[in-house]
Amino acid sequence: MPAPSSPQLTWRPSGRPLARIELDGGTVRLEPLDPARHAAPLFAASHGTGPDGAPADGSLWDYMAYGPFTDAAAMRAWVEEKAASRDPLFFAVIDKANGRAAGMASAMRYDPPNGVIEIGHIWFAPTLQRSRAASEAIFLLQAHAFEELGVRRLEWKCDAQNAASRRAADRFGFTFEGIFRQHMVIKGRNRDTAWYALLDGEWPAVKKIFTRWLAPANFAADGRQKVALSALIAEWRSRTAGQIK
């Protein structure tokens, strides 16, 4: 009996490079990182004081390879270094409600021949965490990867102990693929890394879910969501059980 033939891959690389462009949404805008415009507000958002006057929660940096920073000058120097990088390509996350930078994200490890890219270095200041704008920032990165760069695979990796990041990956439609043990050393401690991915064949369904969730009709006057994104993603997973590999 002849051996089965290999499936033919019809995908071809788009040839599009990572570019310093803005990604604009309804509630949030991602701007290429600029020290002059972003360093000071990013420091204030992540190292300032809360509504009660208490210092900002330093746990924001627990799973990052950097931070917290000793002062604004130290963070400015770090932002200058990151702004000069082409891969990772860093963005400042701008909350359109007030026009201020309140987080960061990057597109990284871009592999055009294989159609793979990762989003990482993601952190949101307390004012942006668990918000519609924060979720839309991820959606903008997903759409950019699949629709502008034309990738086949979008990756999300995080510390296996970072429960919040792992919940976020699941909520954003990524599929858990496994743990890379002793993958990295971060701030002097071992890091096992959880790997997640979203494929081009899954993107149309995830985009439709995000679009439904982001619609103004899904939010009450006080900004609360009527239908949770996690519920919509869970429903999709249930319908496609056994199809998502």
Cα-atom radius of gyration: 19 Å
Order of helices and strands: EEHHEEEHEHEEHH
Give the CATH superfamily. Answer: Gcn5-related N-acetyltransferase (GNAT)
Q: Tell me roughly what share of residues is in helical segments.
A: 25-40%
Annotated CATH architecture: 3-Layer(aba) Sandwich
Mean pLDDT figure: 92
Strand content: 25-35%
Could you tell me how far the N terminus lies from the C terminus, measured between alpha carbons in angstroms?
29 Å
Unreliable sequence segments: 50-54
User: How many H/I helical runs?
Assistant: 6
CATH class: Alpha Beta
Care to count the β-strands? 8
Broad structural category: alpha+beta
Shape, principal axes of CA atoms:
globular
How would a textbook summarize the main sheet?
8 strands, mixed
Count up the domains. 1
Give the arrangement of secondary structure elements:
Blueprint: E1 23-24, E2 28-32, H1 35-47, H2 72-83, E3 89-95, E4 100-111, E5 116-124, H3 132-148, E6 153-159, H4 163-171, E7 175-186, E8 189-199, H5 203-214, H6 229-239
Parallel strand pairs: 5-6
Antiparallel strand pairs: 1-2, 2-3, 3-4, 4-5, 6-8, 7-8
Helix pairs in contact: 1-2, 3-5, 5-6
